[in-house]
Amino acid sequence: MNISVIGTGYVGLVTGACFAEFGVQVICADVDGEKIERLQRGEIPIYEPGLESLVTRNMREGRLSFTVDTAAAVRDSLVVFIAVPTPPVEDGSTDLSAVEDVAREIGRAMDGYKVIVNKSTVPVGTAGKVRGWVEDELAKGGRTSRFSVASNPEFLREGAAIGDFMRPDRVVIGTDDEEATAILKSLYRPLYLIETPVVLTNVSTAELTKYAANAFLAAKISFINEIAHLCEQIGADVHHIARGIGLDRRIGAKFLHPGPGFGGSCFPKDTRSVAHFAREKGTALEIVEAVIRVNQQQRQRMLDKIEGALGGSVSGCTLGVLGLSFKPETDDIRESPAIDVIRELLARGAAVQAYDPQAMEQARKVLPDVALCDNAYGAAQGADALVIVTEWNQFRMLNLERIRSLLRRPIVADLRNVYDPETMRAAGFEYVSVGR
Q1: Rounded CA separation 172/117 (Å)
Q2: Lower CB density within 10 Å: C or N end of the chain?
Q3: Beta-sheet pairing, 351-355 with 318-322
Q4: How many CA atoms lie within 13 A of 368 on its CB side?
Q5: Residue 265 shares a structural domain with residue 178
Q6: In what helix (H) or strand (E) does residue 431 lie, and over which residues does it extend?
């Protein structure tokens, strides 16, 4: 089976490379000529563990190729995945302009039956819009052609995307006709062989499933952050509470880790999008609205924590910050708590020097006033406090004696609870964490 994936960001590139690994013939297309040239040379424009070797191997074996000619990619494919950005609009709605551009291009290029699949995260009803855009372009050309529009949302975690695709918890396929269902089931046959649960449903249900999943996970994060704040008022330990409730299989232990709030390309955008969509339908999602508010408040709580450790103000202080990406094992800084915290620290009169194992290049574009260091110890050098914002593994076993000698004042604000409070205090640090 020949397929094309339009868009070569996190979702599109991983999707294309993993389908190629299954033995499918894949063409990945993008309007960004420079990115396509880099990919054709085997250069991966994003950091995702294992992706470079996967792309290189499948290019070498002739199953994966890259092009700027979207029309040719569409004509050569039975299934066309749309995997382009759907960024948020200021009011919380979703910008579908890239999806529309691709849909219209498909309509202009279509020369026979195609299954058009939304892989991008899009509001409920987008499949109908895609159908309309394709039909409009067909009509403009005086042509008719049969096609199906399906929804196949992604559930990929940045930093673990390849494993999530190759061994997923589930696959959700939303279609409104049997032909498209049969084709997509055939495409995902390798996952049937490892007994991956496959949810077959209609298009609207599949579209909403993605939002429901992300909203629920975001709710768990905001919930435990609220509990952490209460723990600080009464002398309780949020980690013991998380374990105490997480062992209940109805709740589960994942996403019960306190910190500076969720970020990234999915949770902030998707919670705002589904809340906006629900309001438009006259059915406000009160829990999701609260999740968004708590997440915003959590940034402020972290800033208060840092200022409290420094006597009430960061003005005139130099702060070393560890972590810039929104989570470990990615270079993605979109909606990163670290970026938000740093910007506010700068606004309050602090100087910031920072280090991240992968996100330095991305951060340099948005934080021109921050001194970017070569390593964690460089970030600590001469700082009034060290702030841990992203829990990269290499920050978990720092040489504490060396860190203390480098800091101007032995203060550590650990916003991810990487270290044990007793150990840090025994090592001579004034140590603050979250919910302990």
Answers
A1: 12
A2: N
A3: parallel
A4: 1
A5: no
A6: strand 430-432
Q: Residue 192: is its pLDDT beyond 90?
A: no
Task: Write the DSSP string, 329-346.
Answer: T----TT-HHHHHHHHHH
What distance in Å separates the CA atoms of residue 290 and residue 270, rounded to the nearest whole number? 14
CATH of the domain at 385: 3.40.50.720
So what's the pLDDT on residue 195?
A: 92
Residue 250, Cβ density class (10 Å: 0-12 exposed, 13-18 middle, ≥19 buried): exposed
Q: pLDDT digits over 71-101, tens only?
A: 999 999 999 999 999 999 989 899 999 999 9
**Helix, strand or coil, per DSSP, at residue 312:** coil
For CA atoms 29, 35, 40, 44, the dihedral sign is negative
3-state secondary structure of 210: helix
Predicted TM-score (pTM) of this structure: 0.93
For the segment 409-426, what is each residue's pLDDT rounded down to a tens digit? 999 999 999 999 999 999
210 found inside a domain: no
- 368-382 pLDDT, tens per residue? 999 999 999 999 999
pLDDT: which is higher, 309 or 1: 309
Instruction: State yes or no: is 18 an active-site residue.
Output: no
Together in a domain, 140 and 244: no
Of 18, 28, 231, 266, the active-site residue reads 266
Q: So what's the pLDDT on residue 344?
A: 97
| Co-location of 254 and 180 in the same domain | no
Q: Are residues 187 and 236 in the same domain?
A: no
| DSSP code of residue 159 | T
